Amino acid sequence: LADNLRGRYRGTEVMKLIEMIKLEFKLLLSRKEFFYTFTIMMVLISIGFLSKCFSLYGRDIAKVYPASQLWFGWISDFSKIARLISELFYMFALPFIASLAYSDTYFIDYNTGMIKNIIIRCNKKDYIISKTVVVFASGFIVIFLPLVIEQILCFFVAPVSGRFDILHTKAYQFPYIKAMQFPVLFINYPYLSNFLFAVIAGMFGACISLVSYSISFINKKSRLLVVAIPGIVYVVYNFIVEFLNMRHLSLLNYLYSCVTFVGNTSYLLKVMAGMIIISGIIILGRNLVVKDEL
User: Fold this and answer.
1) Are 110 and 216 in contact (CB under 8 A)?
2) pTM of the complete model
């Protein structure tokens, strides 16, 4: 009987957590910051896409690049506007867009006093976990989804495959193949390669968002610091390693799918794992060690 009651209790707790996560997703989708960040992403990829379309207008179909190489993550040498937007996004905008979507949600609840009303009505653990899940998902969605949409748009203006390469070389003769991440995918399954880079960028955005969220448990005074610190660290770090000519340590080079001389992809995975672990320690520490500061 005791085991049966415990099982029912656990089942009830899981259902409560699921309901909390659903509620947080509803709050995310109704949030103006999420709408703004998603809109900014769509504007960026739309401007880049249209500039590429204008650059390709009037070309012989045999000299149109395949859709896989018109994607946002590729260098667009034939369109200076598209290249500039793409580079600025990966250099500067990505971490800030990811953080702005939903990472300051706990900061707002705490400083408006809303958290007191919420904790009275639900388990604090469920509240923290549900927010953590949705914050992580928000950073992924605002980065990943627009990148995939842009790739789909490219199918309407370019062939699926073609012999005309964006770097004027045949794929099987690609001179920088050893410098690329996932070279086998690039040659044999270019769209899967682009999708994988979109996933990686989305996961990095999710990790950045999670770090910002964890900062809100430490910093209760400045909302700007919550959303800006991870992005500032990202930009400064990339500038430092580029200045020191240590490109294999530049996070930018792992996120940008264009041809870059980088090290092992496991480096980026380790960095993201470290971000998740550090964020988890901060969140758990502030809610388990420091029991309740309400």
Assistant:
1) yes
2) 0.91
